């Protein structure tokens, strides 16, 4: 069975690989043999993740790019190709959130969040997918969605709208790239708050989340690794495209 999930010889690019979820998935890729490019807006945090991977016996390198500035993404795509020779796996994990009430929302904030969560993902995917096709790399693109993509969450209107759009983009691109042997899927995480985010969750908000999560707990970042490795492996999921894997503790199964 281990051969199904062996990523040896694969090159993975993790956009947002310095984030809590992106870094965990990146480590999972490396543990299964992939060479991983950790791409983050802050190079210092990307370097920390890459060093952890190398210290554990994996192969990784940090790169700086901001998906809201596509010139930096185009530049880093060339740098990664020079470093690794090509790309087989693209993880789209950047994200920006806000709790601004709808009636207080300004166009500037809407644009900022959409630039990262939607526009940036779409055009960063275009940049890397074009290189995959040109190099005849039959690969896997994995988009990190959210439980808010199917039923919007209160207090995070713009984030929810952006993730709903990502689901549509995922399915469109699955059809678009199937003739090239490139699979496009999404992961729908439940609540995986980083430690700093947990501190700002009110007691009422936590209780509401737990009442809607049958497993009655938050997820741990490592619990996303299995789904991502499965989707990354052409041996394990070579006929899987245009679909979503829920890792949400049962959140999506509840109605009231």
Automatic annotation (TrEMBL):
Gene3D superfamilies assigned: NAD(P)-binding Rossmann-like Domain
GO terms for biological process, alphabetical: carbohydrate metabolic process
The keyword Oxidoreductase is assigned to this record: yes
Superkingdom of source: Bacteria
Stored Pfam families: adh_short_C2
Keyword match Oxidoreductase: yes
InterPro entries (UniProt xref): NAD(P)-bd_dom_sf, Sc_DH/Rdtase_CS, SDR_fam
Gene Ontology MF terms in the entry: oxidoreductase activity, acting on the CH-OH group of donors, NAD or NADP as acceptor
UniProt keyword list: Oxidoreductase
Similarity comment: Belongs to the short-chain dehydrogenases/reductases (SDR) family.
Protein name in the entry: NAD(P)-dependent dehydrogenase (Short-subunit alcohol dehydrogenase family)
């Amino acid at each position: 069975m281990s051969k199904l999930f062996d990523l040896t010889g694969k090159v993975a690019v993790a956009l947002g690989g310095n984030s809590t979820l992106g870094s965990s998935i990146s480590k999972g890729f490396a543990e299964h043999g992939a060479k991983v490019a950790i791409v983050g807006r802050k190079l210092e945090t990307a370097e920390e993740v890459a060093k952890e991977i190398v210290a554990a016996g994996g192969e990784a390198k940090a790169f700086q790019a901001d998906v809201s500035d596509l010139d930096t993404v185009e530049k880093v795509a060339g740098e990664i190709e020079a470093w690794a020779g090509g790309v087989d796996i693209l993880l789209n994990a950047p994200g920006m959130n806000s709790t601004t009430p709808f009636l207080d929302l300004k166009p500037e904030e809407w644009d900022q969040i959409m630039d990262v969560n939607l526009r940036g993902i779409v055009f960063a995917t275009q940049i890397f997918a074009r290189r995959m096709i040109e190099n005849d790399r039959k690969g896997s693109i994995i988009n990190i969605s959210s439980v808010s993509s199917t039923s919007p969450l209160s207090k995070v209107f713009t984030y929810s709208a952006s993730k709903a759009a990502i689901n549509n983009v995922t399915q469109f691109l699955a059809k678009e790239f199937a003739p090239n042997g490139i699979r496009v899927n999404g992961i729908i995480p439940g609540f995986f708050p980083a430690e700093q985010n947990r501190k700002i969750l009110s007691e009422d908000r936590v209780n509401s989340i737990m009442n809607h999560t049958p497993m009655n707990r938050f997820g741990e970042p490592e619990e996303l690794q299995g789904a991502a490795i499965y989707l990354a492996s052409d041996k394990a999921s070579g006929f899987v495209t245009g679909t979503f894997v829920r890792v949400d503790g049962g959140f999506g199964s509840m109605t009231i």
